[in-house]
TrEMBL record:
PANTHER family: LACI-RELATED TRANSCRIPTIONAL REPRESSOR, RIBOSE OPERON REPRESSOR. This is Transcriptional regulator, LacI family. One of its GO terms (molecular function) is DNA-binding transcription factor activity. Keywords: DNA-binding, Repressor, Transcription, Transcription regulation. It holds the Pfam family Peripla_BP_1. PROSITE patterns: HTH_LACI_1, HTH_LACI_2. The keyword DNA-binding applies. SMART domains: HTH_LACI (SM00354). The keyword DNA repair does not apply. Residues 7-61 form the HTH lacI-type domain. It comes from the Bacteria.
């Protein structure tokens, strides 16, 4: 079978009877042309199977029609769902997405950041990362959007309403009859987890329910396994609790496993609330009450705000707080 001849932008311009610059503006959606011209060029481009020489354009313009995403743990469903939304939204701008996983390792994060810059990505979305790099990321001359972890008030930052989510979690446990509530949270200074904890404490304070700090379990590695071990340690210490707030669902599922091993009935003896609403929380042996985050909205907004920067569109948006809601399931039933 004979290969189809590759049509150049010059030939496409000649066929369309317009300038090369006009074809370029249409292909790259830069504006400055009529609707009729746009339709004619796009129709010709499709019929002739025109494809841009991305490599040549990248070298010439230092732009690649790509954005980078840096994520701390791609196996975490919360992050994966955001990435999925980012990819769907980016394709609307004819942009490709490079996803870089760091495994929460600062050295890998630096390397991945340098790799993306070397690829001439037009912008970068940091999901739950960038905390340790701090000033280094701010000094880069490249558009950046941060999701889930606060960096600096000069940067655009997208987050769920974590404080209100923590408040809702505390309120749910209290209204379900809990008075001795344990907390499983990330020990690191991560803004999202800390705000959830503060919101939880506010709910207790408003309901005049005390909090025993001996029931606070700081987790060094966010994993099902460590949450299970911490729960077993808490039980072995003799501390009594009738509720647990875990600052993400992975930790909550670890708590559930530990309680099941000790034959402690959920929700009869201990009630549990998680955070994130990952799919496992719904299909667990005892469906988990949790705080739902709009992961799709976070990803879509991140792309739109990044494109505002890349395309120099006017935007007054700075930090965005996305509402959360409680999903009540069996783990807090009376």
């Amino acid at each position: 079978m004979k290969n189809k001849k590759v049509v150049s932008i010059k030939e496409l311009a000649e066929m369309s009877e317009v300038s090369i610059a006009t074809v370029s503006r249409v292909i790259n959606k830069k504006g400055g042309y009529s609707k009729e011209t746009e339709e004619k060029i796009l129709k010709l481009a499709e019929s002739k199977s025109y494809q841009q020489n991305v490599n040549a354009r990248s070298l010439r313009t230092k732009k690649s029609q790509t954005i980078g995403v840096i994520v701390p743990d791609i196996s975490n469903e919360f992050f994966a769902k955001i990435i999925q939304a980012v990819e769907k939204q980016a394709i609307k701008y004819n942009y490709s997405v490079f996803v870089c996983n760091t495994d929460e390792n600062i050295e890998i994060e630096k390397r991945q950041l340098n790799n993306l810059i070397g690829q001439f990505v037009d912008g970068i979305i940091y999901i739950g990362g960038g905390v340790q790099l701090g000033n280094e990321t701010q000094a880069l001359k490249i558009p950046m959007i941060y999701i889930d972890r606060y960096i600096d008030d000069k940067e655009i930052y997208i987050e769920s309403d974590n404080f209100h989510g923590g408040y809702l979690a505390g309120q749910e446990l209290i209204q379900s009859g809990c008075r001795k509530i344990a907390v499983m949270k990330d020990i690191r200074k991560i803004s999202s987890a800390h705000k959830r904890y503060l919101g939880f404490l506010k709910a207790l304070k408003d309901s005049k329910v005390g909090f025993d700090e001996k029931l606070l379990c700081d987790i060094t590695v966010i994993s099902y396994k460590e949450a299970k071990e911490k729960t077993l340690e808490l039980l072995d210490s003799g501390e009594v609790f009738d509720g647990v707030f875990a600052t993400n669902d992975t930790l909550a599922l670890g708590v559930m496993t530990a309680l099941n091993e000790r034959r402690i009935r959920i929700p009869n003896e201990v009630k549990i609330v998680g955070f994130d609403n990952i799919s496992a929380s719904e299909i667990a042996g005892i469906p988990l009450t949790t705080i739902n985050q709009n992961k799709r909205k976070m990803g879509e907004l991140a792309v739109e705000l990044l494109m505002d920067k890349i395309l120099s569109r006017k935007s007054n948006v700075n930090n965005i707080k996305i509402p959360v809601n409680l999903i009540r399931r069996k783990s807090t039933e009376n």
